[in-house]
Amino acid sequence: MRKIIVIGAAGQIGSELVPFLRNKYGNDNVIATYRKTLLQDSIKKSGPVVYLDALDNNIISKLFNEYEVDTVYHLASILSATGEKMPQTAWNINMNGLINVLEMSRKYNIKNIIWPSSIAVFGPTTPRDNTPNTTILQPTTMYGITKVAGELLAEYYYKKFELDVRSIRLPGIISSETLPGGGTTDYAVEIFYEAIKKKEYNCFLKKDTILPMMYMPDCLKCMTDLLETDNSKLKRRVYNVTGMSFSAEEIATEIKNHIPEFQIEYKPDFRQEIADSWPKSIDDSLAREEWGWNPSYNLESMTKDMIDILSKRL
Ligand code: AKB
């Protein structure tokens, strides 16, 4: 059985990945770590929980040793919109956090590391439709710059030290448990909360802005399928993945099919420029070929599920 540590367990992905992993690998085998944001009670009650600052090598080393960790999910990161407000902090947390985790993983012979990259590695010079796995990477956000540098570090540690780091370029993730914070794709989650609570939403992107997205159940599947794939099948360290692509207007129309009185207004802010620099759709054929990636949700099924879950809870 694996001994897994999840760094950044309180975030949008971590808060759902931890219960998913505990279910699959056993409660005691998944250590949830947090820094600023406190963990949900259900995570605290179901297994080990510890404080970890990825900038502090001593704590990482202590935990790897104490729990005999062999697998790491390093999720702690500052996202695109917050990164534009504090670029130096984004560089510090995203880059120094990653290199610490890689260094400690090398020292403690960690078997596998999963570190999410993002569609933010692409920029205005990248082809925007059906963006290939190997293409121009010239991002214009600090977040994107840290993700490109992180991908190169992952390749470097694999080639030089045989450290098995694997990465997926996640699109916007839509989920019902924990709100995302500080991203450009966050609108696609907020819109559901506002549609259910207030029947209206002020969207910070233009209505014709199309971005790649994925529903959380597919994201969890993707992060665990990639981990469990035999290394001999993988021809690269970093994979494009996607679930669906839609415009802000298309998701609003889909929500109206369930909540006819829902109204949306578009008031683009600084995040529009970030969204305009990213692809509209992603070619994830290499992930499909090499490790069987196959998402289950599209705009229609994701919207129905989100509304069912959130209507009961809110
Ligand atoms: C963001 O919007 O910054 C993230 C991402 C696409 O990586 N959700």
Could you provide a short overview of the structure?
With 314 residues, this protein is of the alpha/beta class. The protein has helices spanning 14-25, 41-46, 57-67, 80-85, 87-107, 142-161, 187-197, 216-228, 248-256, 271-276, 285-291, 299-313; strands at residues 4-7, 30-34, 49-51, 71-74, 112-114, 117-118, 165-170, 172-174, 200-203, 210-215, 238-240, 244-247, 263-266. The structure holds 2-amino-3-ketobutyric acid.
Could you walk me through the main structural features you see in this protein, from its secondary elements to its overall organization?
It contains twelve helices and 13 strands. The protein has 314 residues and is of the alpha/beta class. The chain folds into two domains: 4-172 and 216-240, Rossmann fold, CATH 3.40.50.720; 174-212 and 244-281 and 297-313, Alpha-Beta Complex (UDP-galactose 4-epimerase, domain 1), CATH 3.90.25. Strands 1, 2, 3, 4, 5, 6, 7 and 11 form an eight-stranded parallel beta sheet that branches. Strand 2, helix 2 (41-46) and strand 3 form a beta-alpha-beta unit. Helix 5 runs parallel beside helix 6 (142-161). 2-amino-3-ketobutyric acid (AKB) binds next to loops.
List the helices and strands and how they pair.
Layout: E1 4-7, H1 14-25, E2 30-34, H2 41-46, E3 49-51, H3 57-67, E4 71-74, H4 80-85, H5 87-107, E5 112-114, E6 117-118, H6 142-161, E7 165-170, E8 172-174, H7 187-197, E9 200-203, E10 210-215, H8 216-228, E11 238-240, E12 244-247, H9 248-256, E13 263-266, H10 271-276, H11 285-291, H12 299-313
Parallel strand pairs: 1-2, 1-4, 2-3, 4-5, 5-7, 6-7, 7-11, 8-10, 9-13
Antiparallel strand pairs: 10-12
Helix pairs in contact: 3-5, 5-6, 7-9
